[in-house]
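Memo to structure team: turn this sequence into structure tokens by end of day. - J.P.
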Amino acid sequence: MSIVSSVLCMPDELRPLLASRTPRGRLVPSLANVLTELRYSRLIVIGDRVTRAAFKLGLKPVLAIYDCVEMRENVECPEPPSHYRRETVFNPRSSVSFVAARVIRDVIRQGANTAIQVYGEEDLLAIPAILYADIGYVVAYGQPSRGVVLVWVDSYVKRLVANLLRSFEPCSSSSPGKTKE
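Reply from structure team:
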């Protein structure tokens, strides 16, 4: 399955796998625990809490993706530094939209610090972030009640994530990511 479909939904059988595993990632209690390691990394952060922590610690992620929701509760949006470009995208729950993936791709290619506010859900946008990131980037995302997962992007991780995305399916009207029209 190609990422060019308008919206790809995660199949139900992948939910337990993605909820329990950190694909080739390292789980740390917080970004503060690895501040020295990340200070000069090309970094992408995903999730409100991780984004907020990165900005507070003075890290300058190339890309920050958040949806202003934590644990299904609305929260105040992270406030990017004033020099950050700001984008907004729609990405349905449990899915990866082509538009969101394309914006992520373009931001990474341009390399300008950018914050993307997602209407819907940002959780699975780590997939296109890893796919489009150059080798050597670090992608950080939250693992609820456990900490932060750090994924160092290499060719193996890119293949793993590409294979994962191939198992996604075009959303149908009964898919959780499909909105009612």
